[in-house]
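Below is a filled-in request sheet from our internal design queue. Each sheet records the structural input a requester submitted and the sequence that came back. We keep these sheets so that new team members can see what a complete request looks like end to end.

REQUESTER: design group, bay 2
PRIORITY: normal
MODE: inverse folding
CHAIN LENGTH: 78
BACKBONE (tokenized):
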């Protein structure tokens, strides 16, 4: 599982703040090319960044077809 798309990664944090998909898409592609079968996408507990989850999912799925796992406490099943 690829774990590079993480809010603690300075490049990911900057890309999210600037709404720039390219750095995150490059990370997703690089991990896919390395042979991972899934990506762990961790946007952390912040509501502002967490609200970007649909955009993040879409931009990753634009470049790779991998299963995505989410490390966040912002998802609700109710």
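RETURNED SEQUENCE:
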């Amino acid at each position: 599982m690829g774990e590079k798309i993480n809010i603690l990664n300075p490049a990911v944090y900057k890309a999210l703040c600037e709404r720039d998909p390219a750095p995150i898409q490059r990370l997703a592609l690089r991990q896919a090319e390395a042979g991972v079968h899934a990506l762990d996408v961790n946007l952390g507990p912040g509501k502002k960044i967490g609200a970007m989850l649909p955009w993040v999912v879409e931009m990753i799925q634009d470049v790779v077809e991998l299963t995505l796992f989410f490390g966040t406490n912002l998802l609700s099943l109710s």
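SHEET NOTES:
- The mean pLDDT is 89.
- The first helix runs from residue 10 to 18.
FILED BY: M.R.
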